[in-house]
Design brief:
Radius of gyration: 23 Å
Bound molecules: zinc ion
Largest sheet: 5 strands, mixed
Strand content: 15-25%
Helix content: 40-55%
Order of helices and strands: HEHHEEEEEHEEEEHEHEEEHHHHEHEHH
Structural class: alpha/beta
Number of helices: 13
Length: 404
């Protein structure tokens, strides 16, 4: 699940000071190892690809090894002669990221190591919407995850909560219509209860984080896509030319698909949420319990006609909303993420029908609609990845912090 991250080239208009040069070279070297996606890279290969001298590479490698950012892989020998080749890879101990997520049926917690591997995944069924109750449950799970990580010699360096709605200042959930939350400072509440005290906590949008995780999981061929996730609310994460847009709000669940439609919890009417949200599809067919998407899938497979009709309407409504989006931003792939990945076979035909009807470019530039890989766990994995990504993007910052 590792993937090289986008980086802006250093500004060459300003002179590079000695410490800046040292930091740049460390960053460059670390990026080569991280970008090898698990394949060990030797010191001589690093010298070749970076253009740095062997002594410089050796000094940087010693520093990265001491900080537990990389490890030496098992030596390998190629051919009949020659010295054994010692490669370097990202460490599976050391810094790790913690992710937290609020889903319709469960709270979840996840720890991801520097290689992007999920090392801990935990669930707690819940049916309450009260912020204090939910945040207390998440705090308990987070502290359990930090301990589980420590038992595997992982140090959680920060936590990210995936929230179903717009977030301000990486902390305050401004409005989560389905939860009924307004201006809940989830970041502050979690910070107050997490151990060790002072652990950095961020809150981010769940659909954005789900898209991040799917992007890592998909590998390098996926660079222009929208990931539409159906959970509590429907959200969309967008990656264009290999960059995830920060300014993208992604609240596709509240895009209007029916001018005369039913009222939505957000205060507007005719929102996509009212036709394609899990609760809307389920209707009165069953109580929303554990894994609503599994219930929907089972009822449809058993021939429940109301659910089949509701899924058909959901596919059409999703197609209308996604077509509007693709007329504005050019993507070649639509991933159905979160619980939609479990329902994709029931939704794809309706979505494709509307895309062909409404998107101007489909005649010469087809759009592939397919289920995402990680399913409902994508947001919590993305939350953990976004934290560990901070270390991967800024190894010098981690080294500076570790020395203080
Ligand atoms: Zn709405």
């Amino acid at each position: 699940m590792s993937r090289p991250v986008h980086r802006v080239a250093p500004n060459t208009d300003t002179p590079i000071r000695q410490d800046s040069l040292r930091a740049h070279n460390l960053d460059l070297t670390f990026r080569q190892i991280a970008g090898a996606r698990g394949t060990p890279v030797s010191r001589s290969e690093l010298a070749t690809t970076t253009g740095l001298t062997r002594p410089t590479i050796s000094r940087i490698i010693d520093e990265l090894l001491a900080a537990e950012l990389i490890v030496e892989a098992e030596p390998t020998r190629s051919g009949n002669s020659g010295r054994p080749r010692v490669g370097l890879t990202l460490a599976r101990t050391g810094p790790a990221g913690l992710g937290l997520d609020i889903r319709a049926d469960v709270l979840s917690a996840c720890v991801v190591d520097l290689t992007g591997t999920v090392r801990h995944l935990d669930f707690l069924p819940h049916d309450g919407l009260d912020p204090d109750e939910v945040l207390h449950g998440l705090t308990t799970m987070a502290n359990r995850a930090v301990q589980a990580a420590a038992a595997e010699r992982l140090t959680v360096v920060g936590a990210t909560l995936a929230a179903p709605g717009p977030v301000q200042n990486n902390s305050v959930v401004r409005f989560a219509p389905t939860l009924g939350w307004r201006d809940v400072d989830a970041g502050a509440a979690l910070s107050g209860g997490l151990q060790p005290a002072g652990l950095p906590v961020r809150v981010d949008n769940d659909a954005r984080l789900a898209a991040l995780a799917e992007w890592y999981a998909a590998g390098q061929e996926l660079n222009n896509f929208v990931c539409v996730s159906g959970e509590f609310d429907i959200g969309a994460g967008l990656v264009l030319d290999g960059v995830q847009l920060r300014g993208w709000a992604g609240e596709v669940g509240h895009v209007m698909v029916d001018n005369d439609g039913a009222p939505c919890a957000c205060g507007a009417t005719g929102c996509l949420q009212r036709y394609a949200g899990l609760q809307a599809i389920l209707g009165t067919a069953a109580e929303p319990g554990i894994a609503p998407a599994v219930t929907i899938d089972a009822l449809t497979s058993a021939g429940n006609p109301r659910i089949a009709t509701a899924l058909d309407e959901a596919g059409t409504a999703l197609g209308v909303a996604i077509a509007g989006l693709i007329n504005l931003v050019r993507v070649d792939t639509v991933l159905l993420g979160g619980s939609y990945s479990l329902l994709a076979s029931w939704l794809i035909d309706g979505i494709n029908r509307e895309l062909h009807r409404r998107v101007l470019t489909t005649a010469w530039s087809p759009v592939e609609v397919r289920p995402a890989t990680l399913g409902p766990d994508a947001a919590v994995i993305g939350a953990a990845l976004s934290t560990v990504d901070l270390v991967r993007r800024d190894p010098n910052g981690w080294l500076a912090g570790a020395q203080n």
